[in-house]
Amino acid sequence: GAGPAGVTLAAAIARYADPAHPIAVDLYDSAPAIGTVGAGIALWQRTRWVLNEMGLMDRLAKDLASDKPSSGFMFHLGEDPNGGYTFHTHTLPGKWRDGGPLAMHRNALLDALRSENEKGSHYTFHPSAKLVSYAAPPSPGAPLVLSFADGSTAHADVLVGADGVRSAVRAGMYAETGRLVRERRVACEAATPKWTGTIACRSLVSIPKLAALRKDHPACTGNYFMHVPIPTQHVIAYPISPTLINFIAFYSIPGAEGTTFEGKWVKDVSVDEVRARFAGWTPDIQVMFDCLETASAWAIHIVEDLPHAVDGPVAIVGDAAHATETHFASGAGSAIEDSFILGRLLAHPSTATSTDAEHALSVYDRFRFRFIRDVVPRGRIVRNLYEFSGDHGPHAGPDWAVPWREEMEHQWEWSWERTPAEMWARSERALLEGRRAQVFEFDEAHL
């Protein structure tokens, strides 16, 4: 996959591999060119550290919506069409206080990463290559065999699936797991994406157009403007360039979480259809609808509680391993962190043989994947907080805002608890000490 996870993995390997012993990287994608799904990306301090380590932050400076990090999410409560008030601004604590997000368009980030990859002579991009399946090595040290939709095949010593929430690599990995445990082809239930019951309607707003209609609109301030007027719905808007605002309107369908979504997961919809869903909202929202030209609807799916993200010489990263609800604005950032850690492990001087490579993957599984996997269920809790669907919200009484804020801060703790720098240091130490990461003991509860 050639999204943020795939191109970051290739760039990390290229940057950290010994030039005297280069690693050949073949990047496959089903699309005819490296592109992007979605518009905006939030670069929190965690992700900025990774990109700075890779020498990319200076190059990206010109593409940022602002050179000053946002102070965080500004939550606005609007209970009637006449207006509302800001009831919370989410900021990070202590040394992370200046670690709010810098926003930019995803294409700018992908272009910078792609240019890093194209510098190397051992990097090859294969467009229009849709992976169908892979075959495990018949013996230790033998290559994997990859099979593509056009009938072609390829060989690899290591396979990394950065192929998104509908990952073919994950499907193959857990089919193999089923064979090991039950001697028949059974996929782990956790490997099947689950619909959250939420639809996200995405679009872009022209800042000049919005400013002409209302020059003091809060979405133009550089902060993440979160609007929560009624349960099960909310809107978020934030600049991703000097001229564009990323606009996402969410609505959740009661009782739909965990059911099968019927239809296309992503489709174009009319602006009028979206506007009708959010009729009667405050002027702050209605004026943004006046600026929309196109819209798309996304059925939000997650991958939750996977037992492992590695099987021998095969690994999965990003949404393939831990697709999370979008409410932390860190899906792409987490994928970049995955690939940075894994890429450095594979490019490390101590990773010299196929056995070493499998050990490197097992270290990633233990020290990176298991950390980020545990963030996935937090997304559901935060969605309920944003949409006042749980125990917290105005319905809880006149003093509802204090416990709401405390729970919000608690659910965000993961984002500053263990930094990528600390995670890399622990991973490298485990790699150098030669300690095998714990082998997951498969049990029937996960299948």
Shape: globular
First and last CA, distance: 27 Å
Widest sheet: strand ordering: 4-3-12-13-14-11-16-15
Describe the largest sheet: 8 strands, mixed
Number of helices: 15
Low-pLDDT stretches are 179-186, 435-447
Q: Which bin fits the share of residues in helices? A: 25-40%
Secondary-structure class: alpha+beta
Radius of gyration: 22 Å
> What is the averaged pLDDT score?
87
Give the number of DSSP strands.
Answer: 18
Roughly what fraction of the amino acids lie in strands? 15-25%
Would you give an account of this structure?
With 447 residues, the chain is an alpha+beta fold. It is built from 15 helices and 18 strands. The protein has helices at 4-16, 45-53, 57-60, 106-118, 168-182, 207-213, 271-277, 283-289, 319-322, 331-347, 354-373, 376-386, 401-411, 414-417, 420-433; strands spanning 25-28, 40-43, 73-80, 83-90, 102-105, 123-126, 131-135, 144-148, 153-156, 159-161, 194-206, 224-227, 233-239, 244-252, 266-269, 295-302, 310-311, 314-316. α1 runs parallel beside α10 (331-347), α10 (331-347) packs antiparallel against α11 and α11 packs antiparallel against α15 (420-433). Residues 179-186 and 435-447 have low confidence and may be disordered.
